[in-house]
Amino acid sequence: MSQVTFTASAADVAASAHIDWVASDATMDERMTEDLIPKGLFLDSDPALETRRIWLVREGQPIETIEGLSDAQRAWITSMGFKATAKRHLAIPGPNGALVGVVLGIGNGASGEPCGPSSLLVGQLAASLPTGCYAFAGQIEAPEAAAVAWGLGAYKFRRYKSNGNHDTGPPGLVLPEGVNRAVVERIVEGVWFGRDLINTPANDLGPQDLEAAARSLAERHGATVKVVEGDELREGFPLIHAVGRGSARPPRLIDFIWGPANAPKVTLVGKGICFDTGGLDIKPANAMLLMKKDMGGAAAALALAHMIMGLKMTVRLRVLIPAAENSVSGNAFRPGDVLKSRSGKTIEIGNTDAEGRLVLADALTLADEEKPDRLFSFATLTGAARVALGPDVPPLYTDDDALAAELMSVGSAIGDPLWRMPFWKGYERNLDSEVADMNNVSDGPFAGSVTAALFLRRFVSNAGTYAHLDIYGWRPAARALGPKGGEPQGARAVFEVLRRAYGTGQAS
C-alpha cells in the first residue's frame, strides 16, 4: 500500500473542530445515553467547509482522465508509481505541502472486502487518514454503501488504552448527494454498538451488564423491557437456568418489545453466553481466549434492533436475549443430565460445551408461541461453521428459498456476506437419544453446524419464516470494513432485507 504522511496544517486544525469526540471509558449502558458514533464522522455538504478530495480510480484508468487534478498532482501520482490496484492509496500534497486529497485504487470496481462494490474500500481510508474533512470527487457507485463503509472503517476500541481519551477522533466524510444521513448513521451506530459489546471482556460484561446495555438501548427507543432472572427461570426457562446456574453471576432472559401491536411481527433471538468455559466438558486454554465473544449473537441482535428502532421501521419488534455464563462449579450441569425444556421436550446432555443451543431453545420456544411473521436467531454456535466457511462467511439456515436468495444477494452487495446451508433432514438421526427426546450433540464428527441448526429448528413451528445465522462474531485481522475484533455479522444484511419489506421512517 502506497501512502505518504504529511504534518498537520492549519486546515487540519480547522477541520478537527468539526469532530467533538473522545474515547469513553463509560460502561455500555452509560454509552447508550451518549452518541454512539463521533460527532463529525458524517457531515452535510457546506460550501464554507474546507475539504480534502477523495478520488476513486479503477485499475488501468489513465491518470489524465481523472477529473479535478492539477497537472502538478498528476505528475506527482505518476512519479510515485501509483497503480490503482484494489486497496492501494496515495496522499496528494498541495503547493505548500499540506494534504489536499487522496487517490484510492478500486481495482475492477468489484473488489470490496469481503465482497461487494469497490466503493466499500473507502473504509480503509477512514482508518488511516489524518483528522480532517473529506469529500468524494464527483459521483461514485454505491454511495450509501461507501458512506457506511467509511463509518465502519473508522471504528476503534480504546476503552482499555491508558491514552485512549487522547484520541483525536476519525476523519469526517461529507456525505454524497442523495445519501440519507439518518440511515447511514443508524446502521453505523448499530455496528459500533455491537462491536463494543463483543470487544468488552467478560469481567466487565457479564449477564447483568448485557442486561443493562440491552435495557438502555430499549429505553432509548421507548421499548418495553421484561427480565426473568436467576431461580425465577426454573419454571418457564429451565434450560437457560441450567446453563447459567454454575456461575456466580445469575442467568437471565432479556425480553423487550417495540412498535405498534398491529404491525408485522419481527422477532430477534440472540445467544448471550457472556463467557464459555465449556462447562464440565471444559475447553482447552487456547480455545477459551476468544470466549468473551460468545455473546456475539446477542450483540448482532441488539445492533440490528438499534437500526430497526432508530429508523422507525414499520414493524412490531421483539428481542429475546438468553444471557448466561457457562462456568465450572459444583452446581454446573453435567454430561449425561436429562433436562426438560420450555417446550416440554427432554434433552440428554452429551456435551456441556454445546450450551448455546440450549439457551436458544427456550428463547425460541417463547418467540414461537406468539407466531411471529419473521423470526431470526443469531449465535456464535459452532466451530464446525468456521471449518466449513471460515470466519468471514456465516452459514445461513432457512426453509424459505426466497429469503435465503435475498439475504445472500443483499449481503454480498454490502460486504456482509452469508451462505446458505441446508436443514438436511437425514441428519436428524444424529440427535437421537436412548433416554430422552433428543441429545444436544451428535455422537459423530460430521455436519456439526447443520446438526446444531436442526436442533434449533425443533423449537420453531409457528413462525411464518425462520432463519438462523451461525456467526463467528469476530474479524481475525484488520480489513477495509473494520479493525481486528468483534463484528455483529449478519445484522446489516438482515436489516437491508427488512428495510425492503417494511421501509423506514428515516428518523433524524
First CA to last CA: what distance? 37 Å
Shape: elongated
Number of domains: 2
Strand composition percent? 15-25%
- CATH class category name of the largest domain: Alpha Beta
According to CATH, the fold-level topology of the largest domain is Aminopeptidase
Task: Please give the share of residues in helix.
Answer: 25-40%
Spans of at least 5 consecutive residues whose pLDDT stays below 50 are 1-25
Name of the CATH homologous superfamily of the largest domain: Zn peptidases
Give the second-level CATH assignment, the architecture of the largest domain. 3-Layer(aba) Sandwich
Major beta sheet, specifics? Answer: 9 strands, mixed
What is the gyration radius calculated from CA atoms?
24 Å
Structural class: alpha/beta
Overall pLDDT, averaged? 91
Counted beta strands: 20
Q: Specify the number of helices.
A: 16
Give a quick summary of the entry.
The protein is an alpha/beta fold and 508 residues long.
Which tags fit this structure?
nine-stranded mixed β-sheet; 18% strand; disordered N terminus; 20 strands; 16 helices; Aminopeptidase; 508 residues; 2 domains; alpha/beta; Leucine Aminopeptidase, subunit E, domain 1
